[in-house]
Amino acid sequence: MSFKSPIIVTGAARSGTSLVTGIFAHCGAWVGETFDGTPDNPKGFMENITIRERVLKPLLAKAGADPKGQRPLPELKDLPDISVTGQILTAINRQGYPGGPWVFKGVKCCLTWPIWVRSFPEATWIIVRRDPEDILTSVLNASFMRAYRSREGWRKWYSVYDQRLCELEGSALNKYVVRPADIVRGDFGMIREAVRASGLAWDQKAVDKWVDPSLFGGSDGK
Hints:
The protein is an alpha/beta fold. It has one domain: 3-Layer(aba) Sandwich (Rossmann fold), CATH 3.40.50.300. The protein is 41% helix and 8% strand. It has a 4-stranded parallel sheet with strand order 2-1-3-4. The longest helix is centred in the C-terminal third of the chain and has 21 residues, at 151-171. The radius of gyration is 16 Å and the shape is globular. It starts with 6 loop residues before the first strand and ends in a 12-residue tail after the last helix.
């Protein structure tokens, strides 16, 4: 595994992407400088600060969409026809990337997936899926999700993410669909397979310490 074959974790917001990314990090994947925890996500967002702020958000802005990935959402036809490989390499080298397996979580990567597939054709995609109604419940309780006030408004938002995730599932060569609901019940089968396929060693003790089922209920799921 090398810089050219990152592990990219994506899914709708509040689906459990932080939980999943943390498992890869605790099994040895390099994650870089990430955002600290908040009441919305006590263990941290596990999202590389520089990549999110200087690469991912500007991609959405160039497409005329909300950089927060809430409203409006981008049309694929409006995405710039570019590669971000060079930007990413510069960003992680400045953070001391040592080489080897590395993981980037970006819920908004699914909204811009053609750019990421073009930039990293050898990437391993971890597509995080959660029951849509549980996602909507969690979104309505998250302080930073402010684009809509009603469940129906957020349902329309989710439908776009779902469509993009389906498109990504059909386009990505190396992909694993993982379900955090299984993980918090103690079923590590799929995530363990994905970790090992990414060139990492499964560390059950570290994973057990990271996974806290009490933080993944009807109103949670990061």
